[in-house]
Amino acid sequence: DTEVTQTPKHLVMGMTNKKSLKCEQHMGHRAMYWYKQKAKKPPELMFVYSYEKLSINESVPSRFSPECPNSSLLNLHLHALQPEDSALYLCASSQETDSGGDNEQFFGPGTRLTVL
Amino acid sequence: GQNIDQPTEMTATEGAIVQINCTYQTSGFNGLFWYQQHAGEAPTFLSYNVLDGLEEKGRFSSFLSRSKGYSYLLLKELQMKDSASYLCAVRGFYFTGGGNKLTFGTGTQLKVEL
Q1: DSSP type of residue A97
Q2: pLDDT tens-place string over residues B36-79
Q3: Beta carbons of A110 and B43 less than 8 angstroms apart
Q4: Residue A95 contacts B, CB cutoff 8 Å
Q5: Cβ of B43 and A90 within 8 Å?
Q6: What is residue B3's predicted lDDT score, i.e. its pLDDT?
């Protein structure tokens, strides 16, 4: 199984709503990532989890709250978002963050988020 | 910090060869990746270079020169399905948090025509 799954595929929410994005992988990877991608732009790193601990937070606003309940799951909790937060949110995983080699990241299909 | 440059768009003919260039400036360089991304889909891994030279994988090859901060992706025998965005991504050591992180270039939108 070389798949990263994400739910939901699409999400529309108001600025006062609370919602969560979910990501799952069963490749035994110990590193998981959240990226944000705006139209015609590259993915931008938001958070990195390594061995279920937050290792990188790219100065993301607190209205985005990541959570890693176990080594296979990664959540992104959303609260009081702004319309400019509308984007494709991609989850990825890799074997580790510290190793070299072709430790490529496997990406999920993403959640298309629209904030009204 | 990291700075990665790629051409925004390229057009090529089916069956031809195309070379997509990427230049980068980074600290703590630890590898360069090429990803393909079709519209509305997730990026998929194409190739990886960490040492200077050419890596070949079927119709795709990637080259790296660390001293020049330069890489290219070579696509041979182009097919219509190769129309996509090609992302150059540099892995660098994240000095503050430890570990490595991947920084993507802006991507090159390749259009393959008949």
Answers
A1: S
A2: 999 988 899 999 999 999 999 899 999 999 999 999 999 999 99
A3: no
A4: no
A5: yes
A6: 87
